[in-house]
Amino acid sequence: MNTTRRTLLKWLAASVPVSFLPKTWAARKDDIRHILPMTTDTSLSVSVSVERPRSRLHLSVGDIGIPGKKMDSKGRYWSFTAKDLSASTSYKLQLSDEKGELGEPWPLRTFPARDSEPESFKLLAFTCAGGPDGLGTPSMQVFKPHTFRQTLFDAALVEQPDAAIAIGDHIYFDLRGDEHPSFGRNSKWMKLFSGWYFSLRYGSFDRSKPIIGTPNEEVLTNIGDEQIANLYGTRFKSTPIYFVSDDHDYFENDDATEDIVTFPPDAFSRSAHKAIADLYYPALPGGPKPQWNRNFGTLTYGRLFEASLIDCAGKLTLGEDARLFPPVAEDWVITRINESRAKHYALVPSHPMGWTAGKWREWYPDVVAPNGFTGVVSNEVISDTKGQLTVEAEKYLWQKGWFRQHQRLFEALSELRDGTLFTFSGDIHAQGAISITGSAELTFDAPVKSLLVGPVSTSDATWPSTARGIPAAQPAWLSSNELLATKEVNGFTLMDVTDSEIRVRFFDCGGYDLSKEEDGRVQRVDEIIV
To answer: What was the pLDDT predicted at 17?
Structure first.
């Protein structure tokens, strides 16, 4: 009798006890790959992926049945939305398919009513969690392994936050207008090798075709499963999490050189961003337009806290009236700053206010240039440009309108009021805090506090001091006082909000020096009051 290799493997799998099989082979009660929820005071949304495609998926929210919306062509990615819920209520959630219940039930709590006055709110914030699992070479690591990032997440969740904000760069897979990434911009052999590696491991996009329902879908899910589903798993299933998009979520770095300008994003980048978001995490509520729910949104926790969440990449413009986000969204933000009834208000742009690393798409003109140089500089990632941050040289294609928008926002943020107006963000791979007293011609009677919340996945090659040649610093046109020294470390930030104050704790999880063999556990905690 002929025994094929496939038959033999099936026989071995059937005959070996489950406990001795690798986890990926072992039979499981369910095959839920990830769960990411979002709540408001009257609604909840949940994004789910499963290993095996389903013809239908159903979510019970207490006594309410919610049919799933299939987000892909195969039935592995599902979205659920429940409306008209009661505020401050813990609901029991349960997934089921055509064969019955799937996995165990779990709790998820709605936020307090918008006109209520909760006593406290604990908010977790972090940035830049994406990137392939442990990508690197024997001599240099690009992104931390998942085990490091998940240890960091678990340390944050032990603190039992009421909600989380993930600020930008949930995906790193920079295409530079091509079908797959290629690292090593100054080496054609490195470009060739890295392009071969990424196309073999993940596949290559066909930029002329849609994402969903074509071979592009498998490439996208190969990336998203690794960088989002496998990373988060189900650990956040009872912690509402708001995802803010930034440049890498459009499958590009914010580059501007004579060879390529990556933003505003082209049609393919916009469709890739929307597809990743639709498959893996809930949309944002409370933005200026319903159709912009992947770019802008609001987190409201009663009358205690409100945050406006801003994508500074997807709708960026160039030209006479250049902005990092459009006039309609800007008007909406300034209205919220001026009219919010919350005791404490936070502006959360995907690109930080108060720091520069000489990148192109910044609020500020600072660029890395040789000492005394006054010409035009394109500051590429891992380029040969050496020097220091300066405003004497000209940053290639930088838009003065971006700074004018910055000034309008700071004018609103610096208004005296009962309660707190402040800003926090990510993107620049560091932790820190400053108090901004002036910006160019503006002087603030009420200084504006600005926080860098800390990255999750950054390693050797992706710290600003390596990728840009300098660490992040305060821009030349700003006047500020340091509240917490800016440090290139992985970590997260917890904000304990009460009526009288916001206590901010910065959790340093290390990861800068590989020789220390840090594993994502908390190394140090610093605290300030906003």
So the answer is: 33
C-alpha distance from residue 43 to each of 286, 306, 382 (Å): 12, 17, 44
Backbone dihedral angles phi then psi of residue 342, each to the nearest 5 degrees? -75, 145
- Cα separation, 77 vs 87, whole angstroms: 28
User: How far is the C-alpha of 486 from the C-alpha of 428, rounded, in Å?
Assistant: 10
Structure confidence at residue 454 (pLDDT)? 97
Q: What is the dihedral of CA 227, 231, 234, 239, to 10 degrees?
A: -90
d(CA 483, CA 504): 11
Q: Who wins on pLDDT, 378 or 158? A: 158
Q: What is the pLDDT of residue 136?
A: 85
Whole-number Å distance between alpha carbons of 102 and 100: 6
| CB proximity list for 381: less than 8 A, separation 6 or greater | 185, 253, 255, 467, 468
Least confident of 101-115, 383-397, 482-496: 383-397
Q: State residue 5's pLDDT score.
A: 33
Cα angle: 366, vertex 413, 404; to 5 degrees: 40
Please write the tens of the pLDDT for every residue from 294-330: 999 999 999 999 999 999 999 999 999 999 999 999 9
DSSP classification of residue 389: E
The answer to whether residues 329 and 296 touch, using CB atoms and an 8 Å cutoff, is: yes
56 neighbors 97 (Cβ within 8 angstroms): yes
**Averaged pLDDT score across all residues of the chain:** 91
pLDDT the model gives residue 182: 82
Enter the tokens of residue 340. Answer: 């919010």
Q: Would you call 368 helix, strand, or coil by DSSP?
A: strand
Rounded distance between C-alpha atoms, residue 10 and residue 7, angstroms: 5
> Options 2.40.50.140, 3.60.21.10, 3.40.1190.20, 3.40.50.1820; which CATH number does 116-529 get?
3.60.21.10
pLDDT digits (tens, 9 = 90+) for 214-267: 999 999 999 999 999 999 999 999 999 999 999 999 999 999 999 899 999 999
Q: 3-class SS at 249? A: helix
Both tokens assigned to 422:
């402040």
- How many beta carbons lie within 10 A of that of residue 40, not counting itself? 21
Phi, psi of 411 (to 5 degrees): -60, -40
- Give the start-end residues of each E strand in 90-240: 90-97, 100-109, 120-127, 163-167
Q: Give the CATH number of domain 26-110; options: 2.60.40.10, 3.90.226.10, 2.102.10.10, 3.30.420.480.
A: 2.60.40.10
Domain ranges of the chain: 26-110, 116-529
CA separation for the pair 19, 39 (Å, rounded): 38
Report whether 240 contacts 163 (CB < 8 A). Answer: yes
Give Cβ neighbours of residue 425 (< 8 Å, ≥ 6 apart): 127, 167, 348, 349, 350, 351, 352, 353, 450, 451, 452, 453
Token pair for residue 329? Answer: 């969204």
Give residue 275's pLDDT.
98
User: What are the backbone dihedrals phi and psi of residue 345, each rounded to the nearest 5 degrees, phi first?
Assistant: -125, 135
